[in-house]
Amino acid sequence: MTVSSPARKPRFTAPRETGIFLVLLAMAAFLALVNPRFLGGGNPMVLARQFSMVGIMAVGMTMVIVLGGIDLSVGAVVALSGCLATQAMRHWDCPLWVAVIVSLGVGLAVGCVNGALIGFFRMAPFVVTLGTMGMAASLALVVTEAQQVPVKGCAAEAGFYAIAEGYFLGVPNPVWLMAVAVAVGHLFMGLTRTGRHIYYIGANEEAARLSGLRVTAVKWGVYAVCGLLAGLAGIIMASRGRSGQPTEGPGSELQVIAAVIIGGASFSGGVGTVLGSFLGTATLGVLSQGLILLGIGTNWQGFVGGAVIIGAVALGLLRRRK
């Protein structure tokens, strides 16, 4: 049975993306005028590399939030996947490709658990992912004995460092990975049948179920993809820090969720795009660096970031009421 009349037309493209892009340009122009260093010395690429991990995770989080869910476990998955990957290289002298598979596999496994509990058992996404967040964060501490796991001296050391520090055609590798994830995610959400089903389910899950959509399978798949991308971010995080660090990662889920919401997605589901989330990620990155360049203390940066998130949500509500 096919979907003939969804409760609400899914938004594969959002005019608000233009507004977010203009805000991003205005912020960049202002910072360039105030401090010429903002656009000098290769700083834009440095900035892009800094927010690349959030950008990668935002692709999966966009799918989850458009579906009407939430995933609080991605930050802890970053820590656990990175630590297990570095342990594979340090203690078992595994080659780089095995470490990458370990990191991706850990993220995929956690995502599949989330998807199974939420999709097949219809448990609340907040409760499930809050639980797996605590479990993953605890496992990261247990397997590393709360110590960082360096890979110095391992056979895969050079290749491992190149994941975060290497360049291809003058562009940092993490930026390439983010660009591929964003491009594939945007095309998937906008052009494929499964992508459209994600919008339909997020707009009205019960109507989608009655229309014959495989709601459970779609939920399971979306959370699996979100976990997989968190595992990719985990190996990048470990490479950037040159070690697996069990305390790095937890907390980044808030940045990812903020980027998606600033990008135009709605917690009510059915609204949002991967491209918008990427622009939201870039906006947060520019804002964070801008506050530093303007000499605003780190204690105030969280306050300003929170105000921006509230403002973005308020603007979204005003648009929908109109």
How many helices in DSSP terms?
14
Low-confidence stretches: 1-13
Spatial strand arrangement across the major sheet: 1-4
Number of strands: 4
The geometry reads as globular
Structure, explained:
This protein has 322 residues and is mainly α. It has one domain (16-321): Orthogonal Bundle (ABC transporter involved in vitamin B12 uptake, BtuC). Helix content is 72%, strand content 2%. It has 14 helices and 4 strands. The protein has a two-stranded antiparallel sheet. A two-stranded antiparallel ribbon has the order 2-3. Strand 2 (167-168) and strand 3 form a beta hairpin. The radius of gyration is 20 Å and the shape is globular. Residues 1-13 have low confidence and may be disordered.
Topology, please?
Layout: H1 16-34, H2 43-50, H3 52-66, H4 74-91, H5 96-120, H6 125-144, E1 149-150, H7 157-165, E2 167-168, E3 171-172, H8 173-191, H9 193-203, H10 205-210, H11 215-241, E4 243-244, H12 252-262, H13 274-293, H14 298-321
Antiparallel strand pairs: 1-4, 2-3
Quick structural gist:
The protein has 322 residues and is mainly alpha-helical. It contains 14 helices and four strands. Helix content is 72%, strand content 2%.
List keywords for this structure.
globular, two-stranded antiparallel sheet, ABC transporter involved in vitamin B12 uptake, BtuC, 322 residues, mainly alpha, disordered N terminus, 14 helices
